[in-house]
């Protein structure tokens, strides 16, 4: 799938609206993916992301050890795969294979991109101070990719218990907010 | 405006989709409101919220001192007021008055509810460990209110620089995710 570098200074505008994201990681034996909604921007540039990854998730230990991941933004076209990924564990299956997703080669981390996603953000863990108490990781985005072929990406937003909002209408209002 | 208690166990589903929220606080001289998009859930129950509030904002010092706020979720009907709140400072104006919003009485905090909002969450600051480095506050929601008259609330999601996505279609997919 086509991909193009995306400016790091604009990454906040992708995550600030609150989409469900996929988090991919790489172990010695293979890649893994999880679904995540508990994330927030923490800095514009370099872009920093704070996120909660439960210690019950397979990804938790991989991220603690490798300190690298890719955060990908799926669109509604792959909503079913996204839910399947959230409903299964990488301890049991290779999710790229089971859900028919294509791992792509990242530049600065070993974790794979997900070719079917609109956005791929290569991330390094930079602060683990709140991991023991809140499972809260702070990441820095070191490289960002966009699929320029997706002109009107419809992102997915979790409202709990399998209920999702799909991004709707865009409005513009004169704002001094960055 | 009508309001009804909302179960604390369901609060995560309101913030997980990533809406722009308003943060109200109370000083000795009056109330204030700011606009915020950098927030994440951190725990289901009691619901905990992590959020970044810049030290340049008037709210930063109030929140550090009073350790209380109300997080309100506006809908598209008051998008213009929301942007006005983000474009001005409570150092200069009383935002409730200027933007024609109605302060409501909270039960467990001194900060006011915003009657025109769909949701009002009374919050206490419970952890300030990351405030000095990242302006990151951790809040506990101690009381939650919903306006039961709003049947299809359309929330607002910031994409940067005055561009907002309005929440769209709802889809249901069988998910084990909470």
Task: Provide a descriptive summary of the structure in words.
Two copies of one chain form a homodimer. The first copy, chain A, has 178 residues and is α+β, with helices and mostly antiparallel strands. Chain A has a single domain, classed as Pnp Oxidase, Chain A (Roll). Chain A is 16% helix and 38% strand. Chain A is built from five helices and twelve strands. In chain A, strands 1, 2, 3, 4, 5, 6, 9 and 10 form an eight-stranded antiparallel sheet that branches. The longest helix of chain A is centred in the middle third of the chain and has 9 residues, at 58-66. The first copy, chain A, is globular. The mean pLDDT of chain A is 96. Chains A and B meet through helix 1, strand 4, strand 5, helix 3 and strand 12 of A and helix 1, strand 4, strand 5, helix 3 and strand 12 of B. Strand 12 (163-172) of chain A pairs antiparallel with strand 12 (163-172) of chain B.
Short description:
Two copies of one chain form a homodimer. With 178 residues, chain A is of the alpha+beta class. Helices cover 16% and strands 38% of the residues of chain A.
Observed structural traits:
12 strands, globular, alpha+beta, 178 residues, Pnp Oxidase, Chain A, homodimer
User: What overall form of chain A do the CA principal axes indicate?
Assistant: globular
The CATH architecture of chain A would be: Roll
Along the chain, the helix and strand elements of chain A come as EHEEEEHEHHEEEHEEE
Q: Report the CATH superfamily of chain A.
A: Electron Transport, Fmn-binding Protein, Chain A
Unreliable segments of 5+ consecutive residues of chain A: none
- Rg for CA atoms of chain A: 15 Å
Mean model confidence by pLDDT of chain A: 96
Class derived from helix and strand content of chain A: alpha+beta
Q: Would you count the extended β strands of chain A for me?
A: 12
Question: Which pair of chains forms the biggest interface, and how many residues does each contribute?
Answer: A-B, 54 and 54 residues
Helix run count of chain A: 5
Q: Residue share in helices of chain A?
A: 10-25%
The CATH class of chain A:
Mainly Beta
**Count of distinct structural domains of chain A:** 1
Question: Could you give a short account of the major beta sheet of chain A?
Answer: 8 strands, antiparallel
What is the chains' assembly state?
homodimer
Strand content of chain A: 35-45%
Distance between the termini of chain A: 31 Å
CATH topology of chain A: Pnp Oxidase, Chain A
